[in-house]
Amino acid sequence: SLRRVLYRRSPKWQAPSRTPRKARRLGKLALIGAGGVGGNIAHLAAMQDMAEEIALIDIAPGVAAATALDLNHTSGITGAGGRCIGGETLDMVGGAEVVVVTAGRARSPGMTRADLIDVNARVIRQAAEAIRSEAPNAVVIVVTNPLDEMTVEMLRATGFPRERVLGMAGTLDSSRFRNALAQAAGVSPADVDAITLGSHGDEMAPISSRATIKGRPLSVFLSDAQIEACVKDAITGGGQVVALKKSGSATIAPAHASIELINHMRGARTGHVPVSVMLQGEYGIDGVVLGVPAHLGQGGLVKVEELRLTEAENTALHAAAEAIRGRLGL
Ligand code: LMR
């Protein structure tokens, strides 16, 4: 069809619209962790009537069950037919098509995401064990920090192929980058096409060279100093929220970013989306998880999109890979 031809010729980022196009509904979506991010994912998923069943799981007594009940109470307004269930045991992931893992500790002001590596690796291993035995065909989306390292941990502990273990980060960081660019240029975020690659940490690599506003290079609208400030804003965005909150980290944008990945998987969005995946030679990098643009489908990763980068951007991407390797002792 014409649409397929056009799409193949131009595998570009798709400007977000408020309503994703009609798409496949999931059977079961399971959320491990029903705190701020998990609760918001459940809310967005229920509003988009994305799954027949949404299972919320949290070790905090009553929290997941209460959120599930609260969400079911919205169906008389929204008319959404999916049902939410909530509980405290990991076996509730049973039969899930997609599992999003947000469980674990959030950083406090002054901490880096990498400071959470040991405490959250234990949480990821527990979650992985349950997923491996109860939902062996699921696609897993890791949100727990430090994102790239925890995605590696999830891959190791489930033994799943790289296609089925994705990290949510690039979507979030790119949204922050676009938001900063749109504000600086005084345009709608829908007019901005920009992505970040690399780690979801200090070695994040916002890609200015390929970014556009209304289809034109950033330099048409912004000075070098303004562009630099937007890059910095994308890199420090999560930390800015942590500093303001004093306790806990961002919950809304990370939830939207997770939903965006699921929407790519179920065909509600087309084009590529920035996502953390295990690289196998793409961008000249092997054996480490890093944020890159990729096409997703029902079974998770379909294909990594290899963009042409400037030398500086390529160096930044490789530096991110080395930093992650170092933190994981690879
Ligand atoms: C974020 O970017 O909002 C999350 O990774 C949470 C954090 O610690 O910044």
UniProtKB/TrEMBL annotation:
Oxidoreductase among keywords: yes
Keywords, sorted A to Z: NAD, Oxidoreductase
Annotated GO biological process: lactate metabolic process
EC number in record: 1.1.1.37
Domain Lactate/malate dehydrogenase C-terminal stretches: 171-323
Domain Lactate/malate dehydrogenase N-terminal: 28-167
Endoplasmic reticulum as UniProt keyword: no
GO molecular function, one term: L-lactate dehydrogenase (NAD+) activity
Function, in words: Catalyzes the reversible oxidation of malate to oxaloacetate.
Family: Belongs to the LDH/MDH superfamily.
Identification of the protein by name: Malate dehydrogenase
Organism the protein comes from: Sulfitobacter sediminilitoris
